[in-house]
Amino acid sequence: MTAQIIDGKAFAATVREKVAGHVTRLKEESGITPGLAVVLVGEDPASQVYVRSKGKQTVEVGMNSYEHKLEADTSEEDLLALIDKLNNDPAVHGILVQLPLPGHLNEDLVINSIDPAKDVDGFHISNVGLLGTGQKSMVPCTPLGCLMMLRDHHGSLSGMNAVVIGRSNIVGKPMAQLLLGDSCTVTIAHSRTKDLPEVVRGADIVVAAVGRPEMVPGDWIREGATVIDVGINRIERDGKNKLVGDVDFESASKVAGAITPVPGGVGPMTIACLLANTLTACCRANGLAEPDGLTA
Ligand code: GUN
């Protein structure tokens, strides 16, 4: 069997088009332009690339982008003061503080100081609790993107066995909640899981989010399963730099029914979902109908 490739790059383009269409209508009908504020503290090169990309795509879908670049030694007090200002700014509908933060800043404190209604990352404890209890929340972007691709591929996920490998707050845990919300039977596997290969072999859906290059080989995958690879790992092979996922694509794509590639799978969906979340937050803030198909 050769797996169908789930093209995240193309899917993300359709999500962005959908968002852009809604933004155009919103501007025409109500004069409101959704706005996203991104806060970057310090000069981590990977974070700078992400933030630039977020700003560019925000403008491309017709939204306002507000970038706040702060020095690496910015005090917690100053950062919290900026977040307070953004919380109270009606032109800002979404706030994202790029992680990781420099070590002297308390990430939990900072994230939980964002107005939950503007928390487009879905990391605030209120949003985590709302998601866990099946209530309307802001949903973390990467798991939301994975869910959209799974729903698009399968239609209903009801009754499927899903194994999420990785238990991070950003991906693994919210991914498991979303799959449970769609009536999957969900297992969260991690570094201490006993007989991980056998656990993964029981899965109709495998979501790999561990950050270990090509950790999941094809012989762990059940014939015909759907594999969503969240990993983005930089490795050197044959003297060249290469991006690989947490799944060994070569062997897994021979047994899976469908698989996301790296790059071009989950990656592009994350920013597309950030834009979708900003639009959703803007609609909710203004008591307007939310767009269909862009939330969980
Ligand atoms: N750093 C890496 N991924 C993310 C993300 O999804 N959100 C934020 N805020 N920071 C990140």
CATH class placement of the largest domain: Alpha Beta
Distance between the termini: 31 Å
Shape, principal axes of CA atoms: globular
Number of helices: 10
Structural class, by secondary structure, is alpha/beta
Classified in CATH, the superfamily of the largest domain is NAD(P)-binding Rossmann-like Domain
Helix content: 25-40%
One letter per element, helices H and strands E, the order comes to: EHEHEHEHHHEHEHEEEEHEH
Q: What is the CATH-assigned architecture of the largest domain?
A: 3-Layer(aba) Sandwich
Largest sheet: 6 strands, parallel
Please give the domain count.
2
Average of per-residue pLDDT values = 98
Radius of gyration: 19 Å
